[in-house]
Design goal:
The protein contains 3 helices and no strands. With about 100 residues, the chain is mostly helical. α1 crosses α2. The protein starts with 14 loop residues before the first helix and ends with a helix.
Length: about 100
């Protein structure tokens, strides 16, 4: 709802935090990619785990602001749902391309 909230509030989003979420998704994806595919570093498919990780982070904020803030789910459920969401999104993107 675009209201200012204290840092750490479930569902709170900031420009700086969003940028760092993208950087974190990119770093984790690149490190994993290099470990799994050391001879195929410059592959465009690296964008799939970056997208899935970033989308999962955004979903965490959405669920935190809605379901978790109302006490309908806890942090562990939120994490499980967002990991499942990111994984399924990554599979879906891979299948359609």
């Amino acid at each position: 709802n675009f209201r200012r909230v204290p840092p750490g509030t479930d569902g709170g989003i900031s420009v700086k935090g969003t940028i760092w979420a993208m950087v974190g998704a990119a770093c984790a994806s690149v490190i994993g990619w290099v470990i799994i595919f050391p001879n195929d570093i410059l592959n465009a498919l690296i964008m799939i785990p970056i997208l899935a990780g970033f989308a999962g982070c955004l979903m965490d904020s959405v669920l935190g602001a809605t379901l978790e803030a109302r006490g309908l789910i806890n942090k562990y459920s939120n994490n499980a749902i967002t990991m499942l969401f990111g994984g399924l999104l990554g599979m879906f993107v891979y299948i359609i391309i």
